[in-house]
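Re: the request from the purification team.
They wanted to know what the chain is likely to look like in 3D before they choose a buffer screen. I agreed to run a prediction and write the result into the notebook, where they can find it.
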Amino acid sequence: MTTLNINGRNMSVEAAPDRPLLWAIREQLQMTGTNSAAAAGLCGACTVHVNGEAVRSCQTAISDVAGKKITTIEASVPRATIRCRRRGSPSRFRNAATASPDRSWQAASLLAKNPNPTKDEVVAHMDGNLCRCMTYSRIQKAIMRAAIEMRTASNAGTERRAT
């Protein structure tokens, strides 16, 4: 029995230490927002955050994440937005063009580290997250818009008001 901290709650799973985290999340904990597609780390459909970093849960052993903070797409409230944990400001890229949790989590990881990415940085960071609808340019634009919204919200919160 292994205890995992998922979305702020300690949960016990019974699985071999080398079992992929993906299967513990989906099968044992019934959290199906984390998807399985390739199950080989190729597509990004299984992306979760571990201590704030986007990782492929299909390639991450349960033993590697014991004692770490795991966050799945189910933690986003409301589901239509993802919050930048460090800044607390909403980013709306999930609505704009990223219909799947893996792209949302991958983008959130980038924006948490780099609130002002270049297009090339977005492309490099999102590499490996495959999209069946082939809307990569819309996804890139949505992430860039989200970065602008986050910076604007962050700047508005630090401006002093006249008294």
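For the purification team: The chain has six helices and seven strands.
Please add any questions underneath this entry.
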